[in-house]
Amino acid sequence: MESKRQQKHAKLIQKELGEIFQKEARHLIGKAMVTVTRVMVSPDLSVAKTYLSFLLADPAATLELINDHKKEVRLYLSKRIGKSVRIIPELAFFPDESASYAQHMDKVISGLNIPAAPEEEDEEED
């Protein structure tokens, strides 16, 4: 379980990375829309696991491109939060699979053959 301090740092990093991908890092990702869905910070605040979701682009290629420019993204992050945190965390980017998992589960559930429940007869009480 994350401490309040970890949660606070995670929210700050999530917000700032979202803005970085919208503004400063536009040249890296092109027309792709990148959403920072979740950030998990280590207890010592030195590593931030960042989960990304992609629209209008190939997720694998975009993630690889972001990983290749990880130092540049961390530099942008340091310019934004450098005054409010002691350590700028190392960034580890991962694809967020929750949307594809939700689609898969929806497909599985809709494909189930569930028989209708038998109607219950109302019994009158005396």
TrEMBL record:
It is found in: Cytoplasm. NCBIfam families: rbfA. One of its GO terms (cellular component) is cytosol. It comes from the Bacteria. The keyword Iron does not apply. It comes from Algoriphagus zhangzhouensis. Belongs to the RbfA family. One of several proteins that assist in the late maturation steps of the functional core of the 30S ribosomal subunit. Associates with free 30S ribosomal subunits (but not with 30S subunits that are part of 70S ribosomes or polysomes). Required for efficient processing of 16S rRNA. May interact with the 5'-terminal helix region of 16S rRNA. It holds the Pfam family RBFA. One of its GO terms (biological process) is maturation of SSU-rRNA. Its main location: cytoplasm. GO terms for molecular function: ribosomal small subunit binding. This is Ribosome-binding factor A. PANTHER family: RIBOSOME-BINDING FACTOR A, CHLOROPLASTIC-RELATED (PTHR33515). Monomer. Binds 30S ribosomal subunits, but not 50S ribosomal subunits or 70S ribosomes. InterPro entries: KH_dom-like_a/b (IPR015946), RbfA (IPR000238), RbfA_dom_sf (IPR023799). Keywords: Cytoplasm, Ribosome biogenesis.
